[in-house]
Design brief:
Blueprint lengths: L2 H13 L8 E5 L1 H8 L8 H10 L4 E4 L10 H10 L3 E6 L3 H10 L3 E4 L19 H13 L3 E6 L6 H10 L3 E5 L1 H6 L5 H17 L3 E5 L7 H7 L5 E4 L1 H10 L1 H11 L2
Parallel strand pairs: 1-2, 1-8, 2-3, 3-4, 4-5, 5-6, 6-7, 7-8
Length: 262
Amino acid sequence: MGTSDRLTVRSTVRSTVRSPERTKLSVNVNKIATLRNSRGKNLPDVLKVSLDIERFGAEGITVHPRPDGRHIRKEDVDALKANIKVELNVEGYPSDDFLTMVENVVPAQATLVPDPPHVLTSNAGWRVTENEALLAEVVERLRAKGIRVSVFIDPRTVGENDWRLLRKLGVDRVELYTEEYADAFSTPRRDEVTALYRSAAEQAQAHGLGVNAGHDLNLINLRHLVTAIPWIDEVSIGHALISDALYDGLEKTVARYLSCLR
């Protein structure tokens, strides 16, 4: 039996343990804000696009406001919270400004990422043990507001002690940083790397943590991931989905991503 066959068999076994209706799709609208900001007015309208994405069937909207305001801004976060009915997921590095904004907005979920302010996009998972004191304080603040807390992790760098610590700190979910998976998908390393991500997801589940996933997921690699790890709660997808929408339109593109998750 090959590695991919073993993954299929093990996925079937695990799905009997926990079978969510299906993995939810949260669409990251940062790229809509980037396009808007390039002209200095309000076209495209981030809120309108987000409401359309909601109407087309997505279960969440994700935003990642950064200190320089180069795409999503605080006023976008406020408007989304006040108007969308699906879950709002706010990502970011837990600076004082970020935490104050999140505590005021109270999104359904806050995803903590270890990004320094200058990076182009999220490019690493948390070194959990090294940042225990910071994460402990942040998780306590956010959970006091009733906000679900997800922590961005890289399966290549998280160890057994990290899993125990995440549970001890009261983290609700982890988000698997999937760039390595996406890069390996069309190479001979696909099954090896998929197994690494599945192992991390199993560790998360064993420690009572929910599992999200995001970064470089697309129509080519998404179905394989959620087949291998059927208990993923949510995927956050932005760049690829908005790029696909340039060709197929937003409604059809959202439907195609939802189809991958069913």
